[in-house]
Specification:
Blueprint: E1 3-7, E2 16-20, E3 26-29, E4 44-45
Antiparallel strand pairs: 1-2, 2-3, 3-4
Length: about 60
């Protein structure tokens, strides 16, 4: 992973991690907290060709 973002990707009110691999592949690690501490699920592959975007939209 060459770039990492912290954002609420799935709009559930919990901060998730997004990672862009150097060859345009985007991955997400959803936060599923347990007892107030962050716990991240195994990554989800969100496809490729993401480097064509200047910004990656995330939920507010």
């Amino acid at each position: 992973v060459t770039n990492v973002w912290v954002a609420d990707w799935d709009a559930d009110g919990k901060t998730d991690l997004l990672g862009l691999n150097g060859n345009d592949q985007l991955f997400a690690w959803r936060n599923q907290p347990a007892g107030g501490s962050p716990v991240f699920a195994p990554y989800s592959y969100l496809g490729n060709q993401w480097s064509t975007f200047g910004r990656i939209p995330t939920a507010q």
